[in-house]
Amino acid sequence: MIIGVPKESYPGERRVALVPVVVPNLLKAGFEVILQAGAGSDAGFPDALYLEKGVRIVPERAAVFAQAEIVVQVLCYGSNDLTGKADLPLMRRGQALIGFLRPLGSVEVLQQIAQTGVTSFSVELMPRTTRAQSMDALSSMATICGYKAVLLAAVTLPKIFPMLTTAAGTITPARVFVIGAGVAGLQAIATARRLGAVVSAYDMRPAAKEQVQSLGGRFLELPIAAKDAQDARGYGTAQDENFYARQRELLTQVVAESDIVITTAVVPGKKAPVLVTAAMVQKMAPGSVIIDLAAERGGNCELSRAGQSVVEHDVRIIGGINLASEVPYHASQMYARNLTAFLLNLVKDGKLRLDANDEIVQETLLTRNGEIVNARVREFFSLPELVAQGAK
Ligand code: NAD
Questions:
Q1: In the β-sheet with 315-318, what is the strand arrangement from edge to edge?
Q2: Which of 22, 79, 262, 301 sits most deeply, having the most CB atoms within 10 A of its CB?
């Protein structure tokens, strides 16, 4: 079975879906791997490294799609709304496609993908179970984003992070406040702590408290409780506007006292809640920095603009999108390991094993035979139930 790796086409995207180190595992399992020439070079993996591992290099993108039975990408059409559409005519019925597909994004786009007949698997839909942990690409990318957010903030802030006692006096440590202590938030806390900042964090899920504290962060407790703060998969849930208004009110002071605010509060399939208003930004000290990791999903800060760095009220607000692509070597390595674990589970004896009893297959399978077949996605878009749902 041939796995094809096209070059990522989203503007500025530097990651690649498979890196050379995972290739021997795939070959051992009976796969052949082909790569579009230059697909790994922006991530630090030139073609020669793939060749050494037994990968066949194919010059043309169309030829990768034509020859591969399974196409693996980072940003497939769906999550690549700028250039991804050009791949649609290259896909064919029965071919498998695995990658980020933004399954709760646009139903029209999903239908276009379905109509190619491709059997697509969305890594965003990976169940959060112990067995699927090694395949959890969202967590891998969130880890990278949390780390990078702190570095971006550190180089932007006109202060240093650690406390220093020098002959020229004492420097107080930077104060970093993280809103949303999921995977990205926790990595941001750990990274900021290593650089010497004083870190506090808040999340509406009470379970986050212990995790924040175990990383040396202070957990900010607010005198409000979210209703069913966490869903069955461990994700934060959407709250009503009253709750958000109260959150903003209670967060105002700590935001004002912070040098850096990193926001990561998102809810799957929903616009991110605004937790930092313009008035709150205005109360921050000049030179402070906000990194809004939710910018792509509407933003946690009222003033952030997706993909842009702006200054408002003397505060630098960075609406980072696709930050994982700025650490392409390790982001690709983690993603490639996630995909390899997924592929080894999906394919047995040279055949796609669409096992109806395997929740990893069931929950990630998005389109098949011209239809959106994923039950959760169909429900989200209020599509009628399929008579025979999911994989068989
Ligand atoms: P996420 O990226 O969906 O959201 C980031 C954080 O924002 C979450 O912690 C969420 O509670 C928080 N948030 C949302 N709305 C908020 C609001 N109004 N105010 C404050 N905070 C708000 O989350 P994630 O990174 O995917 O992680 C969510 C949880 O799932 C974490 O506890 C994580 O450790 C867990 N997790 C488990 C597994 C697994 O079991 N395999 C894998 C990954 C993550």
A1: 218-219, 198-202, 175-179, 260-263, 289-292, 315-318, 309-312
A2: 262
pTM above 0.85, yes or no: yes
**Strand pairing partners for 216?**
none
Residue type, 229: A
The first and second tokens of residue 267, run together, are: 């809810």
Q: Longest Cα pair distance anywhere in the chain, in angstroms?
A: 76
- Tell me, in angstroms, the distance from the centre of ligand 1 to residue 184's CA: 8
**Shortest-distance Cα residue to atom 13 of ligand 1:** 265
Q: Are 313 and 281 in contact (CB under 8 A)?
A: yes
C-alpha R_g of the chain:
22
Q: Pairing state of beta strands 70-75 and 119-122? A: unpaired
CA of 86 from ligand 1 middle (Å) equals 33
Can you list the pairs that 318-322 forms with residues at least 24 positions away whose Cβ atoms lie under 8 Å?
318/152, 318/153, 318/156, 318/289, 318/290, 318/291, 318/292, 319/292, 319/295, 320/145, 320/148, 320/149, 320/152, 320/291, 320/292, 320/293, 320/295, 321/295, 321/296, 322/10, 322/12, 322/13, 322/296
Distance of CA 177 to the CA centre of its chain: 21
Task: Identify the residue whose tokens are 């939710």.
Answer: 294
Catalytic residues: 128, 133, 136, 139, 235
- At 19, which amino acid appears? V
Q: Give pLDDT tens digits for 99-145.
A: 999 999 999 999 999 999 999 999 999 999 999 999 999 999 999 99
Q: Is 3 in the pocket of ligand 1 (CB under 6 A)?
A: no
Q: What span, in angstroms and rounded, lies between the C-alpha atoms of 216 and 42?
A: 35
Structure tokens at 89: 């005519």
What pLDDT is stored for residue 392 in this prediction?
44
